[in-house]
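Lab manual, section 2.4: Encoding a predicted structure.

Procedure: take the sequence of the chain (286 residues), apply the prediction step described in section 2.3, and record the output as structure tokens. A sample record is shown.
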Amino acid sequence: HASALRGAIFCLAALPALAGAAPWEYGAVVDAGVIYTDNLFLAQDGLEESETALMLRPEFFLRTDSERTNADIRYRPEAFFYSDFSEADDVYHTVDANLTQALVADSLYVYFSAINYQSIVTPDSVLPTTNLPVTNNRIDSRVLTARPYWQQRLGVARLYADVGYTDIEYDDDLFQSSSQTTGRFSVDNIAEQQGLAWGLDYDFRRTEYEISNPFEYHRAALNLGVWASSSLRVFGVGGAESEFDDYFDANIDDPFWEAGFQYAPNDRLNIELAAGERGYTVARSA
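Recorded output:
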């Protein structure tokens, strides 16, 4: 688990420095118990092995929520000690850390996250639902993300733009690590919930792998509609996107459209229903 954990801990340790002098709350919770299982190795019927294990699962947390800084950092090692199969004793590491820092109040922010977790290797085999069973169908995974974003009000309109970078690493050479670059730009007045409603948005995503060819996707759209009441919007969307059936063509050639309505009577309920069509070009030889 070393390489995945090191990357997550490195990002984890950097977050308090980025947050400045915000007031921090910290603490720990310890969970312990004795667990019995009648199928330690997730074997087929008739081949089960029963076992009793001691489980220790402390959680250490560090968090803050201030005007310019919001962070929640959690680290949980989960240890299992088996009574008869001590060679299977192991410790699994879970890190879940995120921080949002305002660089310019109410407009420019940066978001960081670090996650280390256990993921499934082969979905079509027996799935461990906890870390208690001893299985080869579990590996450590690490996800690091950084995303600066900008939001601003322009009269009745709202502008949003971000760029993001995500690095995904698996603690097993049989699986390809990858990195993803994303971007989004949008400007609209839909949140005003009155009169003519319009919006422009553009999305970009590129994923690069260690061996496989990269995947790239673009989407640009124009949204036009009208608020029939303070809670009901009728709208239509049209635009173009990269070919969704061809991972290696990043051109914005395929048209799409949709039409529908949005019902948003309060902050807790927002329903959108639409139907439309996506098109794509089929290459034909002469």
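Check your result against the sample. The chain is about 5% helix and 60% strand.
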